[in-house]
């Protein structure tokens, strides 16, 4: 079964997955405790979300005593990469430069953020020039 895109997950599933990423691995109780800081959820609600994420290929589990410990099958970075690729393809017709131009022109970037972007570009240019040598 093909994994549902991260962008297509519901709010609860996304929150559960974010919790597992943050914790590294977690039981249903641990995820529920974390999510209950902002919204009271029943154990069965969290369990159901985790089982759906497992069926969709986002989580897997191992038995530990009488409990299941869930862990993500993909890192947050790997999932984000796929989402960014889909956005670039769908919204910017595959043109990454157009996406960056849009983000720079429409975003309210601080001086620090612009400096960080310059640093990242310089680093990438250096890597590319060293690769050609």
Strand order of the largest sheet: 1-2
Main structural class: mainly alpha
Provide the domain count.
Answer: 2
Determine the fraction of residues in helical runs and give it as a percent range.
55-70%
Count up the helices: 6
CATH superfamily of the largest domain: Winged helix-like DNA-binding domain superfamily/Winged helix DNA-binding domain
Largest β-sheet summary: 2 strands, antiparallel
CATH architecture of the largest domain: Orthogonal Bundle
Poorly predicted regions are: none
The fold-level CATH name of the largest domain is: Arc Repressor Mutant, subunit A
Give the SSE map:
Blueprint: H1 11-23, H2 28-35, H3 43-55, E1 59-64, E2 67-72, H4 76-92, H5 96-106, H6 111-132
Antiparallel strand pairs: 1-2
